[in-house]
Write a structure and sequence with these properties.
The chain has 482 residues and is α/β, with parallel strands linked by helices. The protein folds into two domains: 227 residues, Spore Coat Polysaccharide Biosynthesis Protein SpsA, Chain A, CATH 3.90.550.10; 208 residues, Hexapeptide repeat proteins (UDP N-Acetylglucosamine Acyltransferase, domain 1, 3 Solenoid), CATH 2.160.10. The chain has ten helices and 37 strands. It has a 19-stranded parallel beta sheet that branches. Strand 8 and strand 9 form a beta hairpin. Helix 6 packs across helix 7. The protein is elongated, with a radius of gyration of 31 Å.
């Protein structure tokens, strides 16, 4: 039959300050078994990352604030890898079940139902590929099922609903059924309201509806969407909750992945700008993962990329052109044109330009690592400096040390790495090679151009270079001999 004339519904999500219903009797079922063929990837779709988290991890983070009683993730393609990822999210009451034969979304939920605990009365079903989902959108489902309504579902109005099941409403505006795109009539394809694939349903009614699913459709699968028509046919109302596309959009290919990541970064930057008090000079060229923390009055300059839980302290200035991964930058520090990974930059430290801090770098308070310096697995004490053109690896540097231009810690002998120790107040002269294992004692000096192979006692000067020889009039003698 023709689809009824449907005007575009307006979003009906709750206000941020709305009452948050207790959800201890709710189990969340996350559908994460699919391969995602449109990604053209060897990696399962839900394991692709957007703004620092996998797709399925984003969904679990939207669930976390709801304090539900149980979370069941249905896994299938690359089940071990997906299972490890969801367990790493660390939600209470989380388990996985396998969908070995993937016969559709309805079949996936059937696999999850036996795993539900006795006290569960309602089931919240979510796709695992919707990284833009928010807790408030899910709370809207709880609000809609208050009173006598046994089920609710999220919908949205798309400019282009291609790929989404169409929500067909009755004349009174209630949801009548959901028609998958492949099974829709031409009239139904004109409907712009799409199904988000997110439902909150009474457990008993869901159990019954799942047993009545059939596979008489274009794909020969058990469609979860068919529960809407089953419930409706039994006289049960399904409350629609209309959400913006920017909240419920799924990710089915890499173009949509990139678009979702951009939305997530924009949200996070907006939070930092408006709610924390961070200055972001150019948001367009500033890319932050959603788990990055930036403190008040910090400044992010153009070309800054912050990843994997990097933390920036108060009044720190980062950029331009910095790429920091899993780093801690202390208050009042400055990091300019630097690549750093798994590094700590102490309060008031100065780094860059063109520095490379490799994993294990730990810079103390008021330290300096300057232009074209590379560090790796190094601990630098307060007020110590490595101003420029040096490589320092596998080294412990005390306080008040100066490591001059051109210094190299020779830490690798071709088979093993060895450590260098430079004690407090030492001065390592320009172009010194420190052949590890070696210790430069407290307050000791090394002469410029030295290759140091033995320990230098505290307060000593080590000179390890050939004595200069000057041959006067050597050029003239060479000319006379022609």
């Amino acid at each position: 039959m023709p689809a009824p004339d449907q005007t575009a519904p307006t979003p009906s999500l709750p206000d941020d300050d709305a009452h948050h219903e207790a959800a201890g009797d709710v189990a969340v079922v996350v559908l994460a078994a699919g391969k995602g063929t449109r990604f053209r990837s060897d990696l399962a779709k839900v394991l692709h990352r957007a703004a620092g988290r996998t797709l399925v991890h984003h969904v679990l983070e939207a669930v976390r604030p709801l304090d539900v009683g149980q979370v069941v993730v249905v896994v299938g393609h690359q089940a071990d890898e997906v299972g490890a990822e969801v367990e790493a999210a660390g939600l209470d009451g989380l388990s996985t079940v396998a969908q070995v034969d993937q016969r559709g979304t309805g079949h996936a939920v059937q696999q999850a139902m036996p795993a539900l605990a006795e006290g569960i009365r309602r089931v919240l079903i979510l796709p695992g590929d919707t990284p833009l989902l928010t807790p408030d959108a899910l709370r809207g489902l709880f609000t809609a099922t208050g009173g006598e309504v046994p089920a609710s579902m999220l919908t949205t109005v798309f400019d282009d609903p291609t790929g989404y099941g169409r929500v067909i409403r009755s004349a009174d505006g209630s949801v009548d059924r959901v028609v998958e795109q492949r099974d829709a009539t031409p009239d139904e394809l004109e409907v712009r309201e799409g199904n988000a694939g997110m439902y909150l349903v009474d457990r008993g009614l869901l159990d019954d509806a799942l047993t009545r699913l059939g596979d008489d459709n274009a794909q020969g699968e058990l469609y979860l969407t068919d529960i809407v028509g089953i419930l409706r046919g039994d006289g049960h109302a399904i409350a629609p909750v209309v959400a913006p596309e920017s909240v419920i959009a799924g990710v089915n290919d890499r173009a949509q992945l990139a678009a979702a990541a951009a939305v997530l970064r924009e949200r996070h930057l907006d939070h930092l700008l408006r709610e924390v008090g961070v200055t972001v000079v150019d948001p367009v060229t500033t890319h932050l993962d959603v788990d990055v923390e930036v403190a008040r009055d910090a400044v992010l300059l153009p070309g800054t990329i912050l990843e994997r839980g990097t933390r920036i302290g108060e009044r720190a200035v980062v950029g331009p052109n910095c790429h920091l991964t899993a780093c801690d930058v202390g208050a009042d520090a400055t990091v300019h044109s630097t690549r750093a990974q798994d590094a700590v930059v102490g309060e008031g430290a100065e780094v860059g330009p063109f520095a490379h801090l490799r994993p294990g770098t730990r810079l103390g308070v008021a330290t300096k690592v300057g232009a074209y310096v590379e560090t790796k697995n190094v601990q630098v004490g307060e007020r110590s400096k490595i101003p420029h053109l040096a490589y320092v690896g596998d080294t412990r540097i005390g306080t008040g040390v100066n490591v001059a231009c051109g210094v190299i810690t020779v830490n690798y002998d071709g088979r093993n790495k060895h450590r260098t120790t430079i004690e407090d107040d030492a001065f390592v002269g320009c172009d010194t090679m420190l052949v590890a294992p070696v210790t430069i004692g407290r307050g000791a000096y090394t002469a410029a151009g030295s290759t140091i192979t033995d320990d230098v006692p505290p307060g000593s000067l080590a000179i390890a270079r050939s004595r200069q020889v000057v041959k006067e009039d050597w050029v003239a003698r060479q000319d006379d001999g022609r």
